[in-house]
Design goal:
Elements (H helix, E strand, L loop, with lengths): L1 E5 L6 H15 L3 E6 L13 E5 L13 H16 L3 E5 L1 H17 L6 E5 L2 H4 L8 H10 L2 E4 L2 H10 L6 E3 L15 H7 L5 E7 L7 H14 L2 E7 L4 H11 L5 E5 L4 H5 L4 E4 L8 H8 L4 E4 L4 H4 L6 E4 L4 H12 L4 H13 L3 H20 L4
Helix pairs in contact: 2-3, 3-5, 8-9, 8-13, 11-14
The chain binds ligand GMT.
The site of ligand GMT has 21 residues, from helix 1 and helix 4.
């Protein structure tokens, strides 16, 4: 197949999933064309089946806000027509699904029919998308997509609850490449951070309010009162300054390190003992899956799609949002040397259920189904 993938090129979960999907499809022999405004972060190597088309955003003094959606739609038209794409797969509804709708209509006038698949990732539905400033466009462009997928049952349920969506939504969970995400030997790294064999706790996110990063610090504080531990905070975002203030208030700055955005997050995960994800909402929790693949158990909230990923009491624990006391107790249970090896093994076992080799065929057969329906004129 000759597939166009539209996504955000940044460190965000939807961009990571889209990029990893494109890479996996290319390895299967499909030709994959990424269409976005800059080179996706994980697409920094050569593969004969991978192509990158940059969206040109022209500034003009009249535009206080340059119309990215129009530039994107124009680029989609160009790439579909000249590269003879079979399918457009857009990740994150805003503004990709509506730009794809416009591109599809323009291509129709040129005698081309391009099927569009929209994958819903989370905040495009649960946070930004349902806001009145976007909701009518999101509803319309989901209903006008030829195929729609969501990354969890919970996200599918939320979509039907908050939007007047009439389209069938297929759940295709996120996935992991276990050849990349695996426990690596990084003992020197562990020694440098935990010279006295402290337990190592890690959190990675975009530090937005929805991640409740202050709860990470509170849980860590509770753990560190009982056992010597260190905390690594990977990522960056709007809550970072508050976090540093809280760290000073709690007096635990010496045990907490902010590492910023890291590309090789698997290196940090490889030496970690526990991952914390206390999010208010999480449609899937890709960062938790990455941790589990590196044999790191997870203590998370029970929000959104997290119960579909983490097996409570086995690969980690699920706690009520904001219940930092319970999260602390569950963390200490996992970190107990008697229990830790079993939780680590269970985390890896659960991650294997989401191996790319299991999930990729779901996308391929969904693509086939949507292309067949488009050819038959069924929408
Ligand atoms: O978590 C974020 O804020 C980033 C966001 C994104 O779209 O980049 O992540 C969402 O999509 C990920 C990939 O499907 C999911 O693993 C995350 O759970 C989801 N985030 C939320 O629902 C908050």
């Amino acid at each position: 197949m000759n597939i166009g993938i539209v996504c955000y090129p940044t460190f965000g979960g939807s961009g990571v999933v889209a990029t990893e999907l494109g890479i996996a499809l290319a390895k299967q022999g499909h030709r994959v064309h990424f269409i976005t405004y800059s080179q996706p972060t994980r697409l920094d190597f050569f593969n004969e089946n991978l192509f990158y088309h940059e969206v040109d955003i022209r500034a003009y003094p009249l535009f206080e806000y340059p119309p990215y959606e129009l530039a994107l739609a124009s680029k989609m038209v160009d790439v579909v027509a000249h590269e003879h794409l079979d399918l457009l797969h857009v990740h994150y509804a805003i503004p990709h699904a509506s730009a794809a709708y416009m591109a599809k209509k323009i291509l129709n006038t040129k005698g081309l029919n391009i099927p569009v698949i929209t994958t819903l990732h989370g905040t495009d539905i649960t946070l930004v998308g349902k806001d009145a400033s976007y909701e009518p466009v999101v509803t319309f462009s989901i209903n006008e997509s030829d195929g729609v997928t969501a990354v969890s049952e919970d996200l599918k349920k939320d979509t039907y609850q908050h939007f007047d969506v009439t389209r069938e939504i297929e759940v295709i969970p996120n996935f992991i490449d276990l050849t990349r995400f695996q426990k690596l030997k990084k003992d020197h790294f562990k020694m440098a951070i935990c010279p006295n064999d402290e337990k190592l706790i890690v959190h990675t996110s975009n530090f937005r309010k929805v991640k409740r990063v202050h709860d990470v610090l509170k849980v860590f504080q509770g753990i560190n009162k009982k056992i010597p531990a260190k905390l690594l905070m990977v990522g960056d975002g709007p809550e970072r300054n508050h976090l540093e203030t809280l760290c000073r208030e709690l007096g635990n700055c010496d045990d907490v390190r902010f590492l910023g955005k890291l590309e090789a997050v698997e290196e940090v995960l490889s030496v970690s003992d526990l991952f914390l994800m206390p999010s208010e909402k999480e449609s899937f929790g890709l960062a938790a899956l990455e941790a589990m693949a590196c044999q790191v158990p997870v203590v998370s909230s029970n929000a959104g799609g997290l119960p579909e990923l983490i097996i409570d009491g086995k690969s980690g624990f699920l706690c009520n949002v904001g219940d930092t006391q319970d999260m602390t107790e569950k963390s200490l249970l996992i970190l107990d040397d008697k229990n830790l090896p079993e939780f680590k093994a269970n985390a890896l076992a659960r991650a294997k259920d989401f191996d790319v080799t299991a999930i990729l065929p779901m996308y391929e057969s969904f693509y086939e189904k949507i292309m067949d329906s488009a050819k038959a004129g069924v929408s």
